[in-house]
Amino acid sequence: MLPLVLDQVSFTVNGKTIIDRVSVEITEGPRTVILGPNGAGKSVLMRLCHGLFAPTSGSITWQGEANGRKRQAMVFQRPVMLRRSALANIVYGLKLAGVSPRERQLRARDVLEAVGLENVADRPARVLSGGEQQRLALARAWALGPEVLFLDEPTANLDPGSTREIESLIGQVRASGTKIIMTTHNLGQAKRLGDEILFLADGRLVERSLVSQFFQQPASAEAAAFIRGELPWS
Amino acid sequence: MGELLSAAGEAGRLIGGLDPKLTEIVLLSLRVSLTAVVLASLLGLPLGAAVAVARFPGRQPLIVLLNALMGLPPVVVGLLVYLILSRAGPLGHFGILFTPAAMVVAQTILIVPIVAALSRQVIEDAWQEYHEQLRSLGAGQFDSAATLLWDTRFSLVTIVLAGFGRAAAEVGAVMIVGGNIDGVTRVMTTAIALETSKGDLPLALGLGIVLLSLVLGLNAAAYWVKEAAQRRYG
Predict the structure, then answer these.
(1) Tell me, what's the ipTM?
(2) Which end of chain A offers a freer environment for a tag, N or C, measured as fewer CB atoms within 10 Å?
């Protein structure tokens, strides 16, 4: 399904430009981390790629085709759990994806075990802890067997322990052959989980570099300022 | 004061002794209003969910209309249903005027807007929280509406009970289309109106007590069910 190609993509709401003529080709392989200050448009860019928003101008294509909805999934900053059991939340996603009833149960059980939630399979999803809910959200997305997984600040609301668990699970998802595209605030996380950085500022794609290069010698002044400003907090 | 006390005492004896006349009136009231609330829920809940989830031209005027119709005066509904069901009316050939069926029709019309407008509000609030997640999982509008109806089920119970309370307590519509015929279409509210004007205060008061306790009991039950369910499911 990859490469994902954005050609001069802009997104405007009520006359305010959120994403400004972004062109980029995202290929299979490297883990892509979208970085940038608050309000740079990271989440919006990701939603455009995922198909939740339509670009105001420009085009987004998957392997040259406009519709790439099928084999991609997304994990949001705040997981939205349905008012039913943990297992049923995963089954729900599989049902919408057209998986047969028998297969749904098997796959849901498997993926719950993979994220270490098999012992809460029958508990209502909404009473699970924040970390467990995010693992469940990751499981729900992973169960769909996506070629590309988008993660929008997946650990922004979690404590360090839960963050470690999610990071290690992202590693497993990646090992299963899924392309990872994520945003984060946390520069340490960007170093740990990223291979390449897309740096956004004011809705523009300012820089694209390998992680090692980005942190040692950023090519743009904006990125250099961002790293200086953020490092004490990371 | 003495009259009130003796009436209350007599009312207590009628209720305690399961007075056949009083029982018959109470049972008919329940039959009519419960049927109406079931029909109104079957119509109003999907309507509320559809308006909450779908975007179509004229949606906002429709919401305003539904909200306004919550305040429909029962006597006006009674009059309209009377005109439609009377011998010369468009549905006169069914011959259901002055039967419990006509009362069910009138009460259903009265409470469909209540169920639809209030459920629209509840479901739209949930939609704000869910819509990105549901769209990301590939849910269409129909799937989303069905999912939200199920996920807001505890709040919807309260709405349905509000509808029941309105149906059971109204007098104008059932008086006009039912005719308050003894043993056929006499329900609690019409009986109270009649017995009060005749001066048979004990029966009127007895019915009043039953009506109040019924509405109170149902709402207490609904409240605890909702509380318990929300503690359990989050």
Answers:
(1) 0.92
(2) C
